[in-house]
Amino acid sequence: MTAQIRRILTTPTVGPLLALLVACVFFYTQNQRFATGNNLSLIIQQVTVVGTLAIGQTIIILTAGIDLSNGLIMAFSQMLMAKMAVDGTFDPVVAQLGLSESAALIVVPFITITIGMVVAIGAGLLNGLLVTRLNLPPFIVTLGTLNIFFALTRIYTISSATQLPDVLTFFGNTFTIQETRITYGTLMLLALVAITWYLLTQTQIGRHIYAVGDNPEAARLTGIPVKRVLLIAYSYAGFMYGMAALLLIARTRVGDPQAGQNSNLESITAVVLGGTSLFGGRGNIIGTLVGALIIGVLRNGLQLMGVPSIYQVLFTGILVITAVAVDQFSQRAG
Amino acid sequence: MNDVQPVLKAEKLVKHYGSVVALGGADFELYPGEIQAVIGDNGAGKSTLIKALSGAIVPDSGQIYLNGEPVRFRSPIDARNRGIETVYQSLAVAPAMNIVENLFLGREVRRNDILGRVFGMLDKKKMLDDATGYMQDLKFRIQSMKQPVETLSGGQRQGVAVARSAAFASNVVIMDEPTAALGVKESGMVLDLIRKVRDSGLPVILISHNMPHVWELADRIHIQRLGKRAAVIKPDEYSMSDGVAIMTGAMTIEGQEAETDDI
């Protein structure tokens, strides 16, 4: 019986879920407003961007890597999507095609979103190529590309892009279920989690990502193409950073050249809180969603209690250390 | 035995590393249903021979035959596609993954319906059933097929690797120092499994430094010396010290000198 309880407690995601539950109950006792539908919906809205980044981060960490560059890849991609949609880059194309003004407001954003997505996937692929071809540690590679994409964003523009076309901010729009307003961005986050869950748990590439992170030598010896698996993992993460860029624009309704500078650490925090091991090969995507929600609940709950925001950062720090300590401990026990 | 065709046969394999001769015309024959051990001093070309047979290196010259048919392995994948599986000394398992996942690592089975063909969904039930079957064939007792491999002992982990090879090999299983990382009791378990693999009809090549294991398990012993085959002996006809004497060149066997072809 105790063995069974032990097994349930050490099952990944159960710990993070319990933590989330405890936090929710605590904040509910402190402030009844916490548990209103609109507040809970707001919490999810607030974590859509970091949650989406954390999906990509989870994939990389499962391969025993780490990605410091994701926030800045998102920032660069977001700037491309937003600025090119409003600065007239595509005016010649619009003129050539003879599009009406209203048609251009639909076509141009789709073009810039595509460009932003391709650049984000390419940036992920670049990380993957540097890791696999030059055999460099992911920490160093992504520290380098972090700086590169920070610089590229600033070189491209230092001013915000505003008055964005509706297509770009679609995911910020809301619909209402029983008086609770929910954004399409929330649905997108849940969809991306579901797709990634399917890939990781139900398909061959998912099993190979775990195997590569768990024991790369065993993976190689059993004939798994380790480098190709890594390239796919990094590119998929890049795709998530592109989606995060789109969700960021939807939330802020501007293209912000200052965006994403702390997002790398926030995404790693969500992944770690979700019970994914920094040693690779252990963890899951549902945990990451829970981890992101823990951050969101903590911020929101403390804010409702009137606790100064700097204490939210303090609590997050303590939580991260606790989560990593639990990870270390369970590694040693296993 | 000469009227039986060898499953795996190598003729005059040569491999140079720069000016070093690792294999100087080595021969090898593995017959159906036998455990053939390969022993030899360090530098005798034992591991080079095995790498050539398992596809890890390509010999400079010489020919390998599988069931009488000339073959050329350019990679371990080539050899594996021809039904030759290798068990390595390093426990080549993914510790956080469960037994079923480890048995099918790199060879996952997709569902045979639209979910499998279009969405790549794995057939977990089939893999569980097949894996259970493999383990039962080897009389390998385990609490649950879904327990992570890290919860197993070292011997059981190597047992999973042995079971994986036996399940997917159609011709030969090569065991490269399978007990080197294990304790006495654990080794005994793995040796037992190797015997069961042979009894299931798969011939086994066993590379080992452990003379007692070799004499306990092997049907025949290939002794490699100076890049060639010095002799093939039966463990009940020659003692361990004879074996060591042949390895070091202190003793030769009439008609089996490395220079002559005995086939």
State the low-pLDDT regions of chain B, or none: none
Largest sheet of chain B: 6 strands, mixed
DSSP, total strands of chain A: 2
Percent of residues in beta strands of chain B: 15-25%
Low-confidence stretches of chain A: none
- Largest sheet of chain A, order of strands side by side? 1-2
Helix fraction bin of chain A: over 70%
Could you tell me the radius of gyration of chain A in angstroms? 21 Å
Mean pLDDT score of chain A: 92
* N-to-C SSE string of chain B, H for helix and E for strand: EEEHEEHEHHHHEHEHEEH
Question: Which labels suit this protein?
Answer:
heterodimer; A: 334 residues; mainly alpha; 2 strands; B: 263 residues; alpha/beta; six-stranded mixed sheet; four-stranded antiparallel sheet; 9 helices; 10 strands; globular
Write the layout of secondary structure elements.
The complex is a heterodimer of chains A (334) and B (263).
Chain A: H1 2-10, H2 14-30, H3 37-62, H4 70-86, H5 91-97, H6 101-133, H7 138-156, E1 174-177, E2 180-183, H8 184-202, H9 204-214, H10 216-221, H11 226-252, H12 263-273, H13 285-304, H14 309-333
Antiparallel strand pairs in A: 1-2
Helix pairs in contact in A: 2-13, 3-8, 3-11, 3-12, 3-13, 4-6, 4-7, 4-11, 6-7, 6-11, 8-9, 9-11, 12-13, 13-14
Chain B: E1 8-17, E2 20-30, E3 35-40, H1 46-54, E4 61-66, E5 69-71, H2 76-81, E6 84-87, H3 99-103, H4 114-119, H5 124-137, H6 154-168, E7 172-176, H7 184-199, E8 204-207, H8 211-217, E9 220-225, E10 228-233, H9 240-248
Parallel strand pairs in B: 3-8, 3-9, 6-7, 7-8
Antiparallel strand pairs in B: 1-2, 1-4, 4-5, 9-10
Helix pairs in contact in B: 6-7
How does this model look, in words?
The complex is a heterodimer of chains A (334) and B (263). Chain A is 74% helix and 2% strand. Chain A contains 14 helices and 2 strands, in the order αααααααββααααααα. A two-stranded antiparallel sheet of chain A has the order 1-2. In chain A, helix 3 packs antiparallel against helix 11, helix 3 crosses helix 13 and helix 6 runs antiparallel to helix 7. Chain B has 263 residues and is α/β, with parallel strands linked by helices. Chain B has 9 helices and 10 strands. In chain B, the strands form 2 sheets. Chain B has a 6-stranded mixed β-sheet with strand order 6-7-8-3-9-10, with helices on both faces. In chain B, strands 2-1-4-5 form a 4-stranded antiparallel β-sheet, covered by helices on one side. Chain B is globular, with a radius of gyration of 19 Å. The relative contact order of chain B is 0.17. The model of chain B has no long low-confidence stretch (mean pLDDT 89). Chains A and B meet through helix 9 and helix 10 of A and helix 2 of B.
